[in-house]
Amino acid sequence: MTQQAEIQNAHKLKKHIIWQDGRTPDPCVIVLFGATGDLAQRKILPTLAHLIHDHPQPEKICIVAFARRPLDDDAWRSMVLTSLDKYMPADDKLDDAGKTAFAQHLFYCQSNFDDSEGYKRLGQFLAKLDQEQGTSGNRLFYLATPPDTDLEIIAHMGEAGLAKPMPADANGKQHWVRLITEKPFGHDLESAQKLNQEIARVFHEGQVFRIDHYMGKETVQNIIAFRFANGIFEPLWNQKYIDHVQIVVAESLGIESRAEYYETAGAIKDIVQNHVMQILSLIAMESPAEYSADDIRDEKVKVLRAIRPLTPEQVAKQTVRGQYTAGMQDGKPVVGYKDEKGVSPTSTTETYVALKLFIENWRWADVPFYIRTGKHLPVRSTEVTIQFKRVPHQLYTPSEITSLTPNTLILRIQPDEGISLKIGAKVPGASNQLTTIDLAASYNSAFDIELPDAYERLIADCIIGDSTLFIRRDEIECSWRIIDSITSAWKQMGSETVYPYAAGTWGPREAETLITEDGRKWLNPA
Is position 244 annotated as part of the catalytic site? Predict the structure, then answer.
């Protein structure tokens, strides 16, 4: 059971609002490609069930599976309800009436992804739903498919005319067609550019919603509010007052059953290229002209452009990659990466990355951004730590400040979403002994509102056409330029530079050196 669920059991939290103020969702059909796959069954369908059940709207939303298995509507509905029982959180499960109601939203269209006739049948079926269910010609196509099938699916959709919105109705009401694509968005800059080019042949950029579930997390969204709605922090948010920034995405699990994917991706492509770069750009961006999708994404792109591709010499000095070996995780023995099923015994794929990056602009000149991510680390946690510079003149003697640390601001993205600020304070009593205390706020306790699931928020935003939390084409390509400069240099470095670390530890010793040689230290999540 999640921490949020435990809190809810102790005290029932108020429901969040998922539909934006003044934005009523249009009726639509959500076409789910790869609907029988793991992502759809484990995450997307339970999210849609929660969205429709807990945030009902008068307008009809239908969900059409487009998949290879020879199923009919009834068999498909039975499969979905089984998945809901298995994957929905205990406090979220639907009762029998809820299941019956949700099943009426589900329909099935069988086809292989390479069958052009199947896409024509899909178009005809959607037109039928418009007539029978009142979905008004609005389409949301969701690619929950292996990335190597995306180009084929998109090309067939274009040939079948599925990407074109229907003409406006008699009342002038415009119809829409939108596409959600999942990460990874390519595997390097060249493949990302090719993917974007092929998508652009069929869909215009305003129709494309590249989803990164981290952007749906409340704490990530609150980075903008925290920075630009509080007058006490923005004046300090620059190289004059900030010593350095740390971003950690720690995972306590190993690769589980993802060896085939992970062997081609590694930690830098799986986490850094997308999740970390999105968080970094929000932390470092300038204030947008207004709170709009394009203005915010314009500022994020400027940050990524200000991170220059690394030279091979810089890669050698500013990056560390590691691979977990056998160790103990939560008191249980676990095997090393090379002993995982499906992994080559000579693999040099990194399961851990530590980076030092610089943003070359006026705000962040000479402020290092230290990044860490890895599998089989001691805890599961995602945090951003802003460490401020020490006071210019210390009034107290060294013996009086032995427990005093620099001011740090910590934004906890998961699992216990919240914010904490560490400040210096005097210990009660006659002495002048100083120590560090924590001013902390948990989102659950601060708002008394349940946090929306990241996918739920993002899917709801796509339905109403708000692309603020989705990734634009130029963001993807700028991010890949940085990552490619690192991975291309790694290919020229020997396997001995993939440093081992025992599962259940915080990474290889070389990662410690990366930061300690700058006179700093890693700040590990509790």
Answer: no
